[in-house]
Write a structure and sequence with these properties.
about 375 residues; two-stranded antiparallel sheet; about 15% strand; globular; binds guanosine-5'-triphosphate
């Protein structure tokens, strides 16, 4: 016990680090983007180019509708405005001219309920105060910012923040050498380009069992495709999964905290009420004076680069699991920092199984119909 570092002492309380606080020194080299607050704290200023439409929701607590007009009039009004100013409510995500800075501050192994293991990576960035995540399957994908040596840190510090190779076990002392299993690192020869999914947060679909959308199903399916080699796939696995080789390079789900296509949960719930009043998903957003899609993907591009999936070290590119054509271009970044070699479609389970499995609801049919007819999704 005498050799343990001070922070291993049970007498010491854990560091009081609120989850969204950036560690001291993070992005410190970016003095040009910082501004001082009255309290003297350094707060990175947001360059104009990084502002996504998600930063400008209407600040009208209690309702955003113009109550002088009824919803149908507002919809017509918005549609007319759209024609006058094309692009104002465009569904296409805003392409950032400059990528945000990201840093992975902690990673941990998560054994999952289906038997596969993944590594959850938590990121901070200089664009918002949210904890965006990367869910990494396989041993070949590592975060460069996590692995970087921090001044003054001990081996225990490194292992606690997840910057180790191999596996942790009681008594391990080196973050660099897994003495229990020296050759545990898998080779990366003959591997397919990694599967990537850029997933936007959906509390209702992923946690609250909502059958209005297929977000929960898509998250599960992405994890399943990245977890197992093709030999272990179920007999009803979709054709696209059959092309995955057992030498899979693993995969990454970038989990972005842009709930409700970037408008936030509260506004999405209002949109649900408008949908029950007869609007489709796009119309409901417009009625609430939001863009049809308020997301941006610069953070995802930056996180993929940090994970070694960028064109600088991975000229083979990635295979992107999506039906959304706008995402492909957006993920590639302003200067094609990430190459999308292939788009892998995500066909709803109900369509693949003739309705035997998957989501059954009248709402999901309208949701998918609107995605195809108004948002250009290619569900095939
Ligand atoms: N505003 C709004 N957002 C929704 C609604 N239903 C789901 N979402 C959000 O939509 C996001 C998922 O995006 P989708 O448009 O379903 O799919 P996508 O990410 O564009 O495309 P895929 O990669 O093919 O899944 C999540 O953030 C959900 O919270 C809705 O009715 N209104």
């Amino acid at each position: 016990m005498a050799n343990l570092p001070a922070h291993a002492s049970p007498k010491l309380a854990p560091h009081p680090t609120p989850p969204t606080t950036r560690p001291e020194g993070l992005f410190a080299d970016d003095a040009s983007q910082s501004s001082s607050t009255a309290a003297g704290e350094q707060t990175p200023a947001l360059p104009e180019s990084l502002l996504s439409p998600a930063f400008t929701p209407p600040a009208t607590p209690g309702g955003t509708l113009n109550l002088d007009l009824n919803p149908t009039q507002i919809l017509h009004h918005n549609q007319a405005a759209n024609l006058e100013h094309p692009g104002e409510h465009a569904k296409a995500p805003k392409l950032l001219q400059q990528l945000p800075k990201v840093e992975c501050i902690v990673r941990a192994r998560i054994p999952t309920t289906n038997g596969a293991e993944m590594f959850l990576h938590l990121y901070l960035n200089d664009m918002d105060n949210k904890e965006h995540l990367a869910i990494v399957f396989g041993n070949n994908i590592r975060s460069r910012s996590l692995d970087r040596v921090r001044p003054g840190e001990t081996e225990m510090d490194r292992m606690i923040r997840g910057a180790y190779v191999g596996k942790l076990h009681p008594g391990r002392v080196s973050s660099w050498v897994d003495d229990a299993k020296p050759e545990s690192q898998s080779t990366s020869q003959n591997v397919e380009p990694p599967l990537v999914r850029i997933h936007s947060e959906c509390y209702t679909g992923e946690t609250a069992w909502s059958a209005r959308c297929d977000c929960g199903e898509q998250l599960d399916e992405a994890a399943r495709l990245m977890s197992f080699p093709v030999e272990d796939l179920a007999s009803d696995a979709p054709p696209e999964a059959q092309s995955l080789r057992s030498q899979s390079a693993g995969g990454v789900i970038i989990y972005l905290r842009q709930e409700g296509r970037g408008i936030g949960l509260g506004e999405k719930l209002k949109a649900y009420n408008l949908q029950d009043l007869g609007s489709d998903t796009v119309e409901a957003n417009l009625l609430l004076r939001h863009p049809a899609d308020a997301r941006s993907y610069g953070l995802a591009t930056a996180m993929l680069m940090d994970l070694g999936c960028g064109a600088d070290v991975n000229p083979e590119g990635v295979r992107l699991l999506t039906n959304n054509p706008d995402k492909v271009r957006a993920i590639e970044g302003p200067n094609r920092e990430v190459l999308v070699k292939e788009r892998v479609p995500m066909v709803p389970l109900a369509w693949r199984t003739g309705g035997e499995r998957g989501i059954k609801s009248s709402e999901i049919e309208g949701y998918l119909r609107t995605k195809i007819s108004k948002m250009g999704h290619m569900i095939q």
